[in-house]
Amino acid sequence: MLRVENLSHSYGGLNVLEDVSFNIDAGEKVGLIGPNGSGKTTLLKILSGLLRVKSGHVYFLGQEVTKMPVHKHVSLGIGLSFQNNNLFPNLSLLDNVRLAIQGKKTYRFQMLRPVGAYIDNLAEAKKMLNLVGLWGKRGDQVSALSYGEQRQVEIILALALNPELLLMDEPSAGLTTGESAELIQIINHLVRDKTVLFCAHDMELVFALAQRVIVLYNGQIIAEGTAKEIQANPRVREIYLGI
Amino acid sequence: MNRNLLFRFAPQIIIGLFVLTLPTFASLPFVSLFTKIFIFGLLVMSLDLVVGYTGLWSFCHAALFGVAAYTTGILITEFNITYLWFTAPISILVAALIAAIVGLIALRTSFVYFLLVTFALGQLVYGVVIRLKDLTGGGFGLPNIPYPNFGFDWYSPVGMYYFVLVIFMICAFALYRIIKSPFGISLQGIRENQLRMRALGYNTWLFKYVSFVISGAFAGVAGILFAYYNGLVTPENLDVTASGLLWLMLIIGGTGTLWGGLLGSFVILFLQYEISLFTPERWPLILGAVFIASVMYLHGGIFPYLSNLWDRVRKLYVKS
Amino acid sequence: MEFLYASLLVGLSYGMVLFLIAAGLSFMLGLMGIVNLAHGAIFMVGGYIGLTVAITTGNYVLGILAGTLAAAIVGLFIERATLRQLYKQPLEQILVTFGFVYVITNVTLWIWGPYPKIGFTPSLLDGSITIGESSFPIYRLAIIVIGLAIYFLLWWLQSRTKIGAIVRAGMDDAPMTSALGKNLSPVTIGAFVFGSAIAGFAGFVGIAALGSIDVGTGSRIIFLALGVCIVGGVGSVHGALVGALLIGIVESLVGFYFPEVALFTMYVLMVIILLFKPSGLLGREI
Fold it and tell me: Do C219 and B239 touch (CB under 8 A)?
C-alpha cells in the first residue's frame, strides 16, 4: 500500500532524515518510535503532504505522491492526526466533525442549502461522536472541552475522512495514564480494519497497537520488526536506556 | 400562529414592522438616512463574509463597491444606457472582476501582509479612477445619475427606500444561506485553522478566492444602489478611508455575525447624521475616537451582546 | 546622453525622498512587526510643526528638531495609550493606528486649515547648481546626502547595537525572548517612538523636496511608503532603500521616455513584485 524510497530531508543545515526506506501493507499497524528529534514528525508530515521532501519518493497505492499538495494526498486516502490539538476552537463540536466528514465530498462547495440539510453528514457525525461518547456535547464549543476530550476529537477528525492509511502523530500526547489507556482502547476499536502508521513515545500504546515497529534514530532506520523483537534488540535498548 | 415563536422572534418582528412602515411616520431626511443605512448595511455584511467568516483582512472593499457605482454611473451618463437589467449585471461583473484580479495578487499573502497589499491595491484603484478623468470625472466625481428606469413614474425618496429595502432583503437572505451552507462552514473552518482544513482535504486557496470574489459581487450590488441613491459618485467613495469606515461599522456591529454589519452601519450613519447637525467639520475626529475606542474595548461588537441579552430576557420570562 | 544622466539624478533624489518617507514605516514593520498606518499622518505632523517653527524662528535646524520631537511625542502617545494594551493582537494594532489617522488629520485641518503650505529651504541650500546643460536644485542633492545618512544610521542601529539583536530575536520568538529575561516593553516603545521620529524628520525635510504640504499629504505618504515596502521588501532597512531607489529611478526614466504613464510606474512595479515575489525584493515572509 505504501512504499517509501530513499527519503532524505534537511532543515537549516541539519539532516533530519537520511535515506529512509520502508513498506507498509494494507491492514498493517506499524508503530514508529525513536528519541526526540529522530525525525518521526517530519516523516509523517512528508507522508501526509504537508512537507515537501528534498529527495526521495513516496508511492501510495501504486501512485507517486511525493510532489502532490496536501489535499490531493487526502483525496487519495491518507489521513493525519496531529501531535497538538489542531481543532477549530470557536466552532461547535458537531461543526468540527461535519467539516471533517465533508472534506472529501463534493457538496462542500454548495452555497445554497444549509449544512443541516445534509442528513448523511449528520448521521455519520453521530456515529463517530457516539464511538467516543461525545454526542451529548456536540453543541459545545470545542475550546470548552477538556484536553483529553479534545485529543479524542483530534483522532475522530482524521478518522472521519475514512482514510485508507491513517497517520497518527503522538496520539496520546499530553494525556494521563488513565486517559491514555482509554484512548488505546478507543483507537484499537476504531482502526480495526484500517492501515495505520503512528509514532509514539508511549510504549504501552506501541505494544498494544503495533504489529510491526520501525525504529528511527538520527533520521535513519536502525531497526525493524515485531514489538517483541524490537524490545530485545540491543541497539534499541542502548539508545533508550539514556531516555 | 404559535405564541412561543412569536415571542422568540419579537425583536425581529418589531424591527421588521418598523422598517416596513418607516416612510409613513418619518420625515423625508430620515427615510433617506435609512436608505443609506441599508445600502451600507449590505456592503458591510458582504465585508463580513471575507473578514468575519473567512478570516481575510481585506482593506480594499470600498474599492469594489466604488467601481460598481462608477460603472453604473458611467453607463448611464456617458453611454446613455439606463436599462437597469443591463447596467446592474455589468456593474456587478466589473466589481467581481476587480475582486478576482485583486484576489489573485493578494491571496499570495496572508494576515498582516494581506491587509497591506489590499490596502495598497485599494489605493491603486483610487489612483486609477482619479487619473481616468475623461471617464470618471476625476476628482470631481460623476454627477447627475438619475433614478433607475422601471418604465413608470416612481421618482421619490420613499420609492428609492423601498427599492433599496427589497434588494437588501434579497441579498441579505442570499448571504445568510451562504454562511449556513457547507461552503460557509468551510470558510469558518479556514478562519479557525487553515492548516487543519488543508489536512482534511480542502483546497483552502480556492475557498478563500471564491469567498473574496463573491463578497466583491455583493459589494457591487451595494455600489449600484449607492449610485442611484446618491446621484453622485466621487473617488472618496472608494479610497482606503472609506474601506476603513466599513471596518469600523463591522467592528461595532460585530464580526462573524452577519447582522452585525447592518447594526454597525446603523450606529455609525446615525451618529454621523446627528453629529453633522452640530459640528460637521469635527466628525472625522469623533469618528476616529470612536474607532479607537471600539477596537480597544468592544470585543465582539454590539450585536452578540444584544443577542445574548435577548436570550437572557427570554429565559427569565419563560421561567416565570 | 546628458538628459539620461540628469534623469538618473532626478530619479536618485526622488528615490531618496521616497526612502525618507518609507524609512520610519519599514523600521517599525521590519523590526517590530508593527504596521503603523498613522505613519503618513505622523509624517504630516512633523512637517507642519517643523514648518511653523522654522518660519517663526527663521531657523531650519530648529524646524528639524521641532518636527522630529513633535512626531516622536505623537508616536509615544499612540504607543502608550493604545498599542501597549494590544500586545499580540496585530489586527487590532493596525486598526487602532488607522483610527489615529482620522484624529490626527482632522486636528491638523483644525489648526492649520485646508490650504497648502510651501516648504522651507534654508538659504544655505537654496538655489541650484548646473550639471552640463541642466540645473539641479542643491536641496535635492542635500536630500540624497541626508537620506544616505539616515540609511547608515538605521543600518548601524539594526545590526550593531544590542537593541537591534534583542528586537530581532523578539520578532522571531517573543515568548522565548521574554522568558529569557529581556523586557521587550521599553524596546517596543523605543522602536515605535524612533520610527515616528524618523517620520517627523522626513516630514519636515521632505516638504521642500515635495513642494508643499497640505492635509491630504498624510494619505499620499502612507501609500508611497507602503509601495516602497511592498516593492523592496520588509525586514531590513536595505529593502526600503532598494525599493525606494528602484521606484524613483524607474519612474524618472519612464517619465523621460513615456511621460504619460510615468505616474503609474509605482503601481506597475508593486503588482509585478506581488505576483512574482510577494515578500518583496529583499524581504522575508512576515
Answer: yes
